[in-house]
Design goal:
Strand order of the largest sheet: 3-2-4-1-5
Distance between the termini: 32 Å
Oligomer: single chain
Number of helices: 6
Largest sheet: 5 strands, parallel
Radius of gyration: 15 Å
Number of strands: 5
Strand content: 5-15%
Structural class: alpha/beta
Shape: globular
Order of helices and strands: EHEHEHHHEHE
Helix content: 40-55%
Number of domains: 1
Amino acid sequence: MQKIITIGVYGFDEQSFFAALQRAGVDTLCDIRRRRGVRGSQYAFANRARLEARLAALGIRYVHRLDLAPSAALREDQHRVDAAAGVAKRQRETLSPAFVAAYRRECLDAFDSRQFAADLGEGAHVVALLCVETAPTACHRALAAERLATELALPVVHLLPEHPA
């Protein structure tokens, strides 16, 4: 691997999402969502079957990494924090400290970055971590990317929509 990219779904439309991946030179997309679907017809392109088909047509390999997806209980805890603060999921800017600590404990403590890279193989040079939130600071993908960057000495680039919805 040469570089880690992160990308969310919210704020992109279908055309700008795939164009951003192509501009970044992504050759492998790692979907780190537990549920591989997104509500809303404007985000149908990010539902598993459509996403896999479009990536294949673009020559981008699709990999699902459930080991990097937060548990349903952990996501629910974050939803409660968001609700208490009056913040809608799509407007969240940061994760709660409790979520960050729990995600690191549940997903990253046993995560082996070198094995992750080996599993992706020689053809994975620019790897994108996919979830849904617009802001990387509001999503576990930034935590996973930080871990990979630190342990593998790789640069990280967060792709953001030009005009978030």
